[in-house]
Amino acid sequence: MTTKSKTERGIKYPQTLISLREKLGQKAKREPKFRFYSLYGHLMRKDVLRTAWRISRRNNGSPGIDNLTFKQIEDAEGGVERFLDDLSETLREKTYRADPVKRVYIPKANGKPRPLGMITIKDRIVQTALLLILEPIFETDFLDCSYGFRPNKSAHEAIDVLQKQIHNGSLESYDADLEDCFGSIPQDKLMVTMEQRISDRQILKLLRMYLKASVRENGKPQYKPTKGIQQGGVISPLLTNAYLNWFDKAFYGANSPAHKLGAKLLRYADDIVAVAKEITPELQEFIERILEDKLGLKLNREKTKKVHLNQGEPLSFLGYTFRYIPLVRSPHRKYCNYHVSKKAMIKGRRSVKTLAQTIGRSWKAEDFIQRLNLYLEGWGRYFCLGYSSKEFGKLNSYVRSTVRKQFMRKSQRGYKIGKDENWYQHLKKLGLITLSKERFA
After folding, report:
1. Phi and psi dihedrals of 207, rounded to 5?
2. Whole-angstrom Cα distance, residue 199 to residue 193?
3. Are the CB atoms for 148 and 272 separated by under 8 Å?
């Protein structure tokens, strides 16, 4: 058997898995109404589980309710191979059960906590394997307007499309803000969605198992959710896209007001924006009816709004703020200006401060700078689009000020720099990068 491989998601997929995914995708594309009935056997395949392990190991992540880490599995007797053998056997004997989910909360940009479900490594591997099998099937059904958590799709692509739409005259938008989308998706309707493509009872049983997995929070009794999808689950983004695909198809349906207006939909998971030359009340009502009445979701009415870009109103999408404003040298002409949003800047500063307060206390200066650079590189690569030089400069100043304060606070006698250098030069000597448009060009 061939051992050729291909790199996907930064991981080398064995040719056997590539062939399997291609066959599933081709079958789904040829027969849009076909329901796949023999998938469970692929789940326990070694090539599938090994690839699922490598993907999960690369992503790392905190341990689940059992506190078992990747390092502990690797160091145990038999190592990874024994762990995967045991996991494959439980799947084969159909004794596999999902562990309870450890619920933690992380702060959002507005300061409010966002729930996140931490699943065990065992469940992470099986969910990743399940994703490898189901993804090529559902990908054939998804529309191009969906950009989130999909292979060969990205937030940058969505941002580029939105900028071009505004530039070409789509100067009104409808920004639909879903309230707790992951946590409010009706599980019964979601399973109906999955059953449109899957008839394999064991696969459907696994999906129900993950939806119904018990949740544990510190100091609170264990409970089982009656609705929603766990944020943090590997399979959750695919389930969300599959469910919201009903909305995508309805939006572009022949009888939709969007079809008559030539409106464009951009959706990144549950972030939804529709743009057109005119957003009519009929289109607004249609969007709200599909999302709330048909899909059972809830719009946050305070944040959901119609934006008049031609009147200078800003539109926020995926961390960027878009404006249609006059050119400085030719005020009679306008262009689409987009840059890092205020909310994204607040989140960036908060992340830098957290790194300084946690890692900066115990790490050596050079190691701390190296870790901080990793974050800044990622932040800069994402926000390098548009006209963000001003925001880059602001974050650079904040970073230098925060690092300087941390160094001074860490040393009881005061942190010393060279007599012939200033702090900017000293931090540059330590290797601290400076964000700039040119760096990420």
Report:
1. -60, -45
2. 11
3. no
- Residue 326: name the closest of 308, 309, 307 by CA: 309
- Cα-atom radius of gyration of the chain, to the nearest Å? 24
Measure the CA angle with vertex 286, ends 281 and 290; round to 5°.
150
Q: Over its length of 441 residues, how does the chain's per-residue pLDDT go in tens digits? A: 333 446 666 788 999 999 999 999 999 999 999 999 999 999 999 999 999 999 999 988 889 999 999 999 999 999 999 999 999 999 999 999 999 999 888 776 666 677 888 999 999 999 999 999 999 999 999 999 999 999 999 999 999 999 999 999 999 999 999 999 999 999 999 999 999 999 999 999 999 999 999 998 876 778 888 899 988 899 999 999 999 999 999 999 999 999 999 999 999 999 999 999 999 999 999 999 999 999 999 999 999 999 999 999 999 999 999 999 999 888 889 999 999 999 999 999 999 998 888 876 677 888 889 999 999 999 999 999 999 999 999 999 999 999 988 888 766 666 778 778 888 898 899 899 999 999 998
Place of tokens 């999808």: 229
What is the three-class DSSP state of 172? strand
Buried/exposed 7-45: b ≥16 CB within 10 Å, e otherwise? ebeebebbebbbebbeebbeebeeeeeeebeebbebbbb
Distance CA 394, CA 203 (A): 50
Q: How far is it, in rounded angstroms, from Cα 342 to Cα 353? A: 17
Q: Which DSSP letter does residue 196 get?
A: T
Which residue(s) pair with 272 in the sheet?
176, 267
394-428 burial string, b = 16+ CB within 10 Å, else e? bbbeebbebbbebbeeeeeeeeeeeeeeeeeebbe
**Nearest alpha-carbon partner for 237 in 129, 162, 135:** 135
- Extract the tokens encoding 358: 């946690």
Question: Which candidate, 86, 346, 79, 120, places its Cα nearest to that of 213?
Answer: 120
* Pair 315, 173: CB distance under 8 Å: yes
CA nearest neighbour of 375 among 390, 389, 360: 360
Question: Which backbone phi and psi does 65 adopt, to 5 degrees?
Answer: -65, -25
- DSSP secondary structure string for all residues of 30-48: H-TT--B---HHHHT-HHH
